[in-house]
Specification:
This protein has one domain: 3-Layer(aba) Sandwich (Rossmann fold). Helix content is 36%, strand content 19%. The chain is an alpha/beta fold and 278 residues long. The strands form two sheets. Strands 6-7-8-3-9-10 form a six-stranded mixed sheet. A four-stranded antiparallel sheet has the order 2-1-4-5, covered by helices on one side. The protein is globular, with a radius of gyration of 19 Å.
């Protein structure tokens, strides 16, 4: 096993001592999850602060924007889904399966995340995109093309074997983010979490990301976690968190028409952007 695979495996799995890496036989078959229905049912974690008894359910392959003023509330969504922290009450299910009963390796191998800070390791570009060598070069190049990176990578010394530095030093923030999108695409999961980038990337890259997800992740349920409501007006529905609870959950147009909290947050964002430009 290469050093990159060992590092990636350690990062992605990080198995707590009290958790099993594998699921009981039959609980998480290779086809699970198939529909990507994510349901939080009165769910609360050990995180502090944490959304209090969070309850919502996505539809099959639905794209949902999750908006909150609090970054901690958004972090709790990712932490809950990947079981970086365990729940203390309620249940979190994917396709009707309680994820607390699924082994961590099985669970995390079935989910994908485009994280706030791109995670890239000191090994070849190819190993970063496909750490377990599940895909042929042709599939990797196809994924790069779909993520608008084929031309850029073809110009790198060694191309797929180009040695990346830790964190992707030497690449632009947009390129690092798109590489993580490419890795998620190759993973082929049906549940995708997208976090706002830090630092923010340019508007062109974010629109490109939205286009890639719309076209090539149509089979996925997508959760877009953001403090900027303007980033999720394109999603099927928008879930607004306020004080640790679901304040609103509807399509963006309906929320804007009724002058709801989502509308207020959007106005606040526009005012703040206008102030910064002055």
């Amino acid at each position: 096993m290469s050093r990159c695979v060992q590092t990636f495996d350690k990062y992605c799995i990080s198995l707590p001592l009290f958790s099993s890496s594998l699921s009981p036989p039959g609980l998480a078959p290779p086809s699970w999850p198939k529909e990507g229905v994510v349901e939080f049912r009165s769910y609360e974690t050990e995180l502090n602060p944490s959304p209090a008894e969070l309850s919502f359910c996505t539809r099959t392959r639905e794209k949902v924007g999750v908006v909150s003023r609090s970054g901690a509330e958004l972090d709790a969504i990712t932490s809950s889904l990947f079981r970086l922290v365990e729940g203390r009450r309620g249940v979190l299910m994917i396709d009707g399966v309680d994820i607390s009963s699924v082994g961590l390796h099985d669970l995390r191998s079935r989910l994908a995340v485009i994280a706030r800070v791109p995670t890239l390791f000191s090994c070849s570009l190819r190993s970063n995109l496909d750490p377990w060598g599940c895909h042929g070069d042709a599939q990797v190049w196809q994924a790069l093309e779909r993520c608008h990176l084929k031309e850029r990578v073809s110009l790198l010394p060694g191309q797929l074997l180009y040695p990346l530095q830790h964190g992707g030093a030497g690449l632009s923030s947009s390129e690092r983010r798109l590489l993580c999108v490419c890795r998620a695409l190759l993973k082929g999961c049906v549940v995708l979490v997208v976090e706002d980038p830090v630092p923010p990337v340019d508007v062109h890259t974010e629109r490109l990301l939205q286009s890639i997800i719309h076209t090539h992740f149509s089979h996925c349920t997508g959760l877009y976690l953001t403090q900027n409501p303007g980033n999720v007006t394109h999603t099927d529905r928008v879930l607004v968190l306020d004080g640790g609870r679901v304040a609103e959950f509807d399509c963006a147009s309906a929320l804007l028409q009724r002058g709801a909290l989502f509308s207020q947050l959007l106005s606040e964002t526009h005012r703040n952007q206008d102030t910064e430009e002055e």
